[in-house]
Amino acid sequence: MNERFAVTEIPTRILVEALVPADGPIDAAQLYAVGNRLGMTDQQVRLGIRRAVAAGQLELQGRGRNAQVRATAALRAALEPDAQFLGHAYAQDKGSAPWDGRWHVVSFAIAETERSARDAMRAGIVRLGGAAVQGGVYLSPNAWEPYIARLAVQLGTTGSVSTLTTTDLRIGGVGEPRRIAARLWPLSDIAAAYERLLEAIGDVEARLPAARQSPIERTVLALQLAYAFTRAIEPDPLLPPELLPQPWAGRRARAAFAETWGRLEALAAEPAAKLFTLYGTVIPAAGRSS
To answer: Would you tell me how many other CB atoms lie within 10 Å of the CB of residue 230?
Structure first.
């Protein structure tokens, strides 16, 4: 197998979260079987399940491979796909979500005595695609205000957070939007991550014939593909095409992912795992039509 896409890269946590259905139990034996195929030991899988149980994410009935594992409400909420972000990415790719020219700014001033909340606020903003302009001031071209408000409520920092929008922005004397984007976001690194995703997709495509004969192999490929996709898209701020160099690797990679994911789905008799329904409800409709 290609070293850049080694099965051992997938954390045990991803295995547990991906395979446990949202609306029913799964036999632990299935987790062990897929985990073993991914190169995990029984002990690694067992510890992954135990950690999730201790964190209140899973309920366990029975012992070992004979147990049944069920997702809690907390895990179901955490694993709900962010269909809005993913759908927005594919809408951008199709040209149906043009940028309105507005920049969205958030600033916060949280006391040193609340350092954990301040750090969590900063991390949450960056995860939403924000780029730091200066201390405590972050920028995005996307309308992120509802997500910022939700984050502030969760952290108890609402009184320390301000937001605004503008179409008149200059940073260090630079006002041209595409130059601002190139200055604030690591576009070359983001593009490189999508190129790695394209390589991973090629690896999966080469192994599709084996997946036709083996449900376990299909599950392994789906896990690897979904994990590779997640690693590429999570650091992507989903800037509008108007701010990106063209052609953009993200658009090409997302289209290729949609096609390969669709071929994997077509091999399954039923979408038993949450992992499959997670992408299947968003990707085919948005991605394959581009």
So the answer is: 12
pTM of the model: 0.83
Q: What is the CA radius of gyration of the chain?
A: 21
Which residues make beta-bridge pairs with 171? 174
Domains and CATH numbers, the chain: 3-76 (1.10.10.10), 82-95+186-287 (no CATH), 103-166 (3.30.70)
Q: 151 with 124: CB under 8 angstroms?
A: yes
Number of H helices and E strands in the chain, helices first, is 13, 7
Match 């789906």 to its residue by tokens.
Answer: 222
Task: Convert the pLDDT of each residue in 36-93 to its tens digit.
Answer: 988 889 998 999 899 989 989 889 999 889 999 988 887 766 656 476 788 899 999 9
**Tokens in use for 241?**
């095409």
Residues recorded for the chain: 290
Both structure tokens of 56: 């209140």
